[in-house]
Amino acid sequence: MLEVKNLKVSYGKIEAIKDVSFEVPDGKIVTLIGANGAGKTTTLRAISGLEKSAGGSVFFDGKDVTNLEAHKLVPLGISHVPEGRKIFPTLTVRENLELAGWTLRNKKLIKERMEEVFEIFPRVKERADQLGGTLSGGEQQMLAVGRALVTGGKLLLLDEPSMGLAPVLVDEIFTQIVAINKRGTTILLVEQNAAEALDIADFAYVLEVGYSTLHGPAKDIANDPRVREAYLGV
Questions:
Q1: Where do the domains of the chain lie?
Q2: What's the whole-model pTM score?
Q3: Which of 8, 58, 63, 147 has minimal CB crowding within 10 Å?
Q4: φ, ψ at 114 (rounded to 5°)
């Protein structure tokens, strides 16, 4: 579904991404793990058109989408839940979800997708008429994911979904990520909590200072001594 080849991204003279390559097969969960500053978030932003790449290529469903503007990628089927959630705090939960359907002209379809979000996240349904800014961190994360699902994307990019959440909510978020994947959405996950990410992923890639280094089935990566020492604390 997604193929990233020799991706490079620079901020002025600073090379944030030097050479990153990986694939995301249809229907799978793939995770990118690595230390802060390894280039995980920048990689997602380059895929979704929020950052311009300085080299390399991005293919989605066989189409070259390298440096395509973000608003053109959404209708193609790529949805991005950014780090920090970025919901609209002065809009209600329902309005946040409705706004996500801006590329759809079928109001019935928007309503159906919102109902699917409410089914996945009952707490979001309970808060439907509250302002987004009044939700807890965990509820805002659920809303951010739900908003991406309303777009109907085939590929969901998730950037640090567990950041700042209480442990019980972290477990809930990861449970729902698996449930979303089982409903047919392919997922590319960037996550600082490497243990949780590797536990639910099918495949994993390790990013180090702008390079993709180790890769393979997530269970194999989780058992690699270098990964266990550097990212799992064992």
A1: 2-230
A2: 0.92
A3: 63
A4: -65, -40
